[in-house]
Amino acid sequence: MQIQGAGALVTGGASGLGEATVRRLTAAGAAVTILDRDVDKGEALAKELGDATRFAYTDVADPGQVEAAVELAAAQGPFRIAVNCAGVGWVSRVVARDGTPHDFEAFNFVIRVNLIGTFNVLRLAAAAMSRTDPVDDDGQRGVVVNTASIAAFDGQVGQIAYTASKGGVAALTLPAARDLAAVGVRVVTIAPGTFDTPMLGQLPDEQRQALAKDIPFPRRLGRPEEFASLVLHICENDALNGEVIRLDGALRMPPK
User: Fold this and answer.
1) One of 79, 107, 162, 227 is an active-site residue; which one?
2) Which single residue of 19, 88, 134, 252 has CA 20 to 30 Å from 190?
3) Is 162 known to be catalytic?
């Protein structure tokens, strides 16, 4: 599918994997709408990238806010691309060493953002895409790219909330692709390993280096630009559908 001239949106687009994706899609000729809760970073990035880029303050789990953002993206050109990068992390055991159970609201919050938020954007973006004209003889109208994590398969100690949320994103990929085949919308999920993002940037350099040593090859943290490159390839390769792609340098996470 051609990216040039397409309307697109990227959630979590103000930083990290989302920002890199916004930059690559913009460079490829898409009119991108950035969805994020960080107003300062989102507006600054939109201003830097020019008139074809817009920012919309958005809580991905809020139906009204996402619907408004999708309408904004659809107004910039034929709406073809939605990329879900928004996400949060949380570290806690089911039962802590002192006997305290995992905080219920924290688990609920992670599921709300990572899983429910992804589904919310998926359903509203796909509905908007279904109202566009097909781009080819196959009847293709668009693509939704979601972000899971290798934690969906190799969840570590303390990652139960994050793993459950990302496992849900991975699991919904195939049924979503099958559902949306009728309207010509593809669904693909990327499961990144350890990437050099603001979330990992909060760790001491010593811990960051230790994480990189566990990766077989290349023995370094992933770069956001590599994630963005895969997003572009998914958009352009029409045969990719219903798949979860690990982007992890052959990393398999240990228990802790």
Assistant:
1) 162
2) 134
3) yes
